[in-house]
Design a protein that fits this description.
Layout lengths: L2 H12 L3 E4 L3 H6 L6 H14 L6 E4 L1 H5 L2 H17 L3 E8 L3 H12 L9 E4 L9 H9 L3 E7 L6 H4 L9 H15 L4 E5 L16 E4 L8 H7 L8 E5 L1 H4 L5 H19 L1
Parallel strand pairs: 1-2, 1-8, 2-3, 3-4, 4-5, 5-6, 6-7, 7-8
Bound molecules: the ligand O=c1ccn([C@@H]2O[C@H](COP(=O)(O)O)[C@@H](O)[C@H]2O)c(=O)[nH]1.
Amino acid sequence: MSFGPRYADAVAARGRLCAGIDPHAALLTEWGLPVSVDGLRSFAQACVEGIAPVAAVVKPQVAFFEQFGSAGFAVLEETIAGCREAGAIVLSDAKRGDIGSTMAAYTTAWLDDASPLCSDAVTVSPYLGFGSLAPAVTAARDADRGLFVLARTSNPEGGGLQQSTVETGGTVAQSIVDAAAEVNAASPGTIGVVVGATREHGLDLASLGGAILSPGLGAQGATAADLARIFEGADLSWLLPAASRSILRSGPDSAALRAAVEATRDEIENALS
Ligand SMILES: O=c1ccn([C@@H]2O[C@H](COP(=O)(O)O)[C@@H](O)[C@H]2O)c(=O)[nH]1
């Protein structure tokens, strides 16, 4: 099954929420774990047990594993496999982007079955030009996997670049949404976009035909009520709000993590209904 219908099935079964696995040092300490590879492994294991069986999409933040080098990557591999086994769609938040020939290698790392990091989808940066993502677009389509392309990010610094105007008159962010929509017209749901929940985005998302990952809930200040306002007019069935720290602060108990996922999801579903 291609990524779009698979994603739609997961969200229909589990609700609209992407739960992040972001093992910040501060969270490891709050959970009573050492800031070490052993602490990282225990943290990730608790997330696999508490979050992955209930969240539609789980998003490991690669940076927090990468900071421990090869041992951290080994924990990430186990985490990806464990989350997929628990039935979650795994979106690895790696934000890769480079010239096309290098992009092909990133694509092998994150989307090829033979790779131990293979995920259902990966975040990518289009700021070397959307066309530079072509190897990833082709591979995602051929392997029934997904890409999530940064369009209008949740951080305050993104606007200067993302809101600037391109030759054709629209914003850079809108040009990325439009390029994603063009791919999705032939291959529905292959390309999602990232649009933060923290502010008005000014984008026309009506023709996207793919998921809208919206980080910023909780720790960055956005609320479920903000989502309904900011995404008015978009096809809300594609909206995928994301939260990490606000859920993870309930750990390390697996049952408490599970309850935090369910409460966040219910709040979102109520606000969007
Ligand atoms: O625009 C973006 C793109 C990605 N992120 C990532 O999402 C999570 C948010 O974590 P919180 O703890 O819920 O703030 C994190 O991994 C970011 O790197 C984003 O926040 N904004």
